[in-house]
Amino acid sequence: MARETILVVEDEDDIAELIRYNLQTENYTVVVAESGEKGLQAAQTSPPDLLLLDLMLPGMDGLEVCRALKADRNTASIPIIMVSARGAESDVVAGLELGAEDYVTKPFSTRVLIARVRTTLRRRNRRVPDEDEPIRIHDIEIHPGRQQVRADGADVALTNTEFRILHFLARRPGWVFTRYQIVDGIRGENYPVTERSVDVQVVALRRKLGGFGGLIETVRGVGYRLKE
Prior knowledge:
The chain is 40% helix and 21% strand. The chain is built from 8 helices and 12 strands. The chain has helices spanning 13-25, 36-45, 62-71, 89-97, 110-124, 160-170, 179-186, 195-209, and strands at residues 5-9, 29-33, 50-54, 80-84, 102-105, 135-137, 140-143, 148-151, 154-156, 177-178, 216-219, 223-226. Strand 1, helix 1 and strand 2 (29-33) form a beta-alpha-beta unit. The longest helix is centred in the middle third of the chain and has 15 residues, at 110-124. The model has no long low-confidence stretch (mean pLDDT 88).
């Protein structure tokens, strides 16, 4: 079985070497680029299975690299984990809204980083259900065509907005979505949902799901995810 390739874009040699050593120990193929420009070129020339991307890079910074990769259909599907000393909520939200799958702050535990890598690669290989395909997760059944939800066999009456939020999160369990991404993902033309109202909808959704409500997890300062 071919080893998965991870591109590490990091300008600090000691951190790059630490990441390289630990990933190679886990049997991944590792390529290192020391600048945003070189990382972008490497990803475009030979797309990796995963990209670990520092934000504070000389020249082209990590956000610019992420934006460029997600705008190119040939590289848009590459999962990106941002690794940065910039851990403010605004930085995390900015990275996720550009399309990064995860965000790890420095200093980091190598064990945690490896776990994030494994999880992200596993999600990458998981098929995302079609919009109209029924979903079953944690004894919750979601039927888009009927707009019906059953939890442990019992019907759950949801509003249209509550249903769409649950369905949106359930299609990618474990993924963290910002409030803006949730709004963007569930609304149609002129759909009356705002970032602030997402919180209100989630509170109501949790209440209606009863004992299953805790499966919708709050990621403080960022947004929400459905427990994997």
